[in-house]
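User: These chains co-purify. Model them together.
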Amino acid sequence: MKNLTHFRKLEPQPRLSVVGAGPGDPELITLKAIKAIASAQAVLYDALVDTSLLEHCSAHCEKIFVGKKPGESHSQSAINALIVEKAYALGHVVRLKGGDPFVFGRGQEEIEYAKAFGLLTNYIPGISSSYAAAGSADIPLTVRGVNESFWVMTGTKTDGSLTEDLNLGLQSTATLVILMGMNKLGEIAQLCQTYGKGDISAAIIQNGTMANQRIGISTAADLENMAKKEELCNPAIIVIGEVVSHAKPELWKKILKQALL
Amino acid sequence: MKNLTHFRKLEPQPRLSVVGAGPGDPELITLKAIKAIASAQAVLYDALVDTSLLEHCSAHCEKIFVGKKPGESHSQSAINALIVEKAYALGHVVRLKGGDPFVFGRGQEEIEYAKAFGLLTNYIPGISSSYAAAGSADIPLTVRGVNESFWVMTGTKTDGSLTEDLNLGLQSTATLVILMGMNKLGEIAQLCQTYGKGDISAAIIQNGTMANQRIGISTAADLENMAKKEELCNPAIIVIGEVVSHAKPELWKKILKQALL
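Assistant: Joint model of the two components:
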């Protein structure tokens, strides 16, 4: 105990590590993230984080759930304030977020706030579901000779409408990855047809990389029907592009044959 | 030794794990990847893989370099054949690749080839430098209220020309991440100006996430000059978008002030 007290006096600097927990499978976290969790005096974690990751915490670490659950929600400003409070009270705070903190993760907002209050800050990337969920369903985002790029977008804008990025994306050969788009499947399917891409292959991957992962494949035009039939829902990503049919050639032939009947 | 022989007889199935080693920092590898490496009888690794990762191999594991180095190169077909040969001779082969195997990694080609020869195959994602290199330079690919997407593209097509995806991307608010584009900086800067985006903020991150990481920031129009001045070269990624100035507000103000002189 004497040594520990001594150490705390030598390192009073409050600090924040914004850490990516990865896409779901708790083994898809990095060594660096585990080291940060193990050295933290407090861990603030989201609903999408597998709680088995908290086993990497030290015995005296405070584990604080800040995700959304029925009847309770933590605003971003409340989380920001809690980070600063805990860092000044305890030392090293880890903010553990599903996926990667900087890929639609608001990690930057937390870092900016913490910096303004004099905290040292650090970013530790996590595997983003934007490509890992597709990959775990045998769909690579790029295939040589097929496409040169992939475009990751949120389906739903802050005002609730469908992103305009999709209009531009559908004019390219890019693989389109749509997050938060499950409530826009009808609009997405319609837009694909408007750009003459109704026949292109598409996939929905639910719970990507996890034991309960589920996948549905169809033409882009049939996305909404397929999701209903397969009972697919959030958390899920939508992938639209030639790469889907290249990854699943046998399945794709069967789908095209059914579509022609 | 008796136990080992017994085990090998029980598990003769040749198999391939295509594994992402992450963006450079050897601590940015996942637990799952380390377990795969530790259980492999052979590891085939690329030039961009930090060789300290081979310390996770078991004592009898064959470690085979298949990257490019002066006077020596391994064709993709030679690598494919070697995977199958080693899997039938030894058992579990790990193909260890920089970044993520399915993000411009040709992982799919190796998996398809291996499957055709009866191997069991498995994909283990890695942290992609496409977002982690930017993040490690304090640049998040998305910021709420600034952009709704990011587009990751190869700057150079197989025929050597600049990707047409950039034309579409410059018409959106997407953060543009360009890999393999360091020999196209002049063309990229010109195209940004053509689309009225010469003044937008841009960054080049060399050796992202590594101890020797270097970063340069400029306007999109000034990318080529900045890279020369800062002596930035491959391996590097180019990031174009408002998010750069939001992440580095003080630095950005200074750059804009210089540009106006």
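Strands of chain A lie at 15-20, 42-45, 62-65, 92-97, 120-124, 149-154, 175-179, 201-206, 214-219, 236-240.
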